[in-house]
Design a protein that fits this description.
By secondary structure, the chain is an alpha/beta fold. It folds into two domains: 1-57, Signal recognition particle alu RNA binding heterodimer, srp9/1; 72-127, 2,3-Dihydroxybiphenyl 1,2-Dioxygenase, domain 1 (Roll). It has two helices and eight strands; from the N terminus they run βαββββαβββ. It has helices spanning 17-28, 83-92, and strands at residues 9-14, 31-36, 40-45, 48-54, 74-79, 96-97, 108-114, 120-126. The protein has a four-stranded mixed beta sheet, with helices on one face. The radius of gyration is 16 Å and the shape is globular. The termini are far apart.
């Protein structure tokens, strides 16, 4: 049996749902389509969605200060505007952004950034 899989939602387990909900809706303009008592938020992100799920109480140690997650996951956003201008705009809003890069024989410009909890995202613009 052949099944087609279409990515619907990526869920981040986060310490502060409200902070990341504000970040992704204010910085990227993603619409909040669902929210529940600061423990869950679902945002529309183009053809997919981003879910923000509060991590379990065992991991919520606010005495250590701002939570930064060390993850091996990166979410990639295709963009249709100038990546250099968008990078500057995001940095002006306080978003941590890395340098724009590309590779030989690769048709895209790439630029990584980090959300307030350390989740890495990448902007991808066709050359």
């Amino acid at each position: 049996m052949k099944t087609t899989f279409n990515l619907d939602t990526i869920i981040f387990y986060v310490q502060d749902v409200e902070n990341l909900k504000t970040f992704y809706s204010a910085i990227f303009g993603f619409e909040v389509v669902e929210a529940f008592e600061s423990t869950w938020a679902l945002l529309s992100a183009g053809d997919g969605k981003i879910g923000l799920h509060q991590i379990g109480a065992d991991y919520l140690d606010k005495s250590k200060g701002a939570f930064k997650f060390d993850s091996n996951t990166k979410i990639v956003f295709n963009i249709d505007q100038d990546i250099h201008l968008l990078r500057t705009h995001l940095m002006d809003q306080g978003v941590e952004m890395r340098e724009v890069k590309t590779f030989d024989a690769y048709d895209y410009w790439l630029c990584d950034g980090v959300d307030p909890e350390g989740n890495v995202f990448q902007l991808k613009q066709q050359k």
